[in-house]
Amino acid sequence: MSDPSPPPDAADIMTVVNEAVGGLELEPAEKREIWRFVRRELPYLWSQRTSYFILGSYRDPYIRRLRAVQNELTKQLGAYPFSMGDLVELPTERLNTFDIMFSLLATYSDYIVAVFEKESGGEAPELGEIDDPPYFEKSYVFPRDYSWVTDANLESKHHVTQAALEIAFTDDLTEDETESKIDSLLERARATGIDIAEDDVWNAIDERSDEVEEPAAYSWVHLSKLRKFELHDRCFPWTTEEELRTAVAELPSPTPRPEWEERDES
Question: Which of 43, 108, 114, 202 has the most CB atoms around its CB within 10 Å?
Answer without folding.
Answer: 114
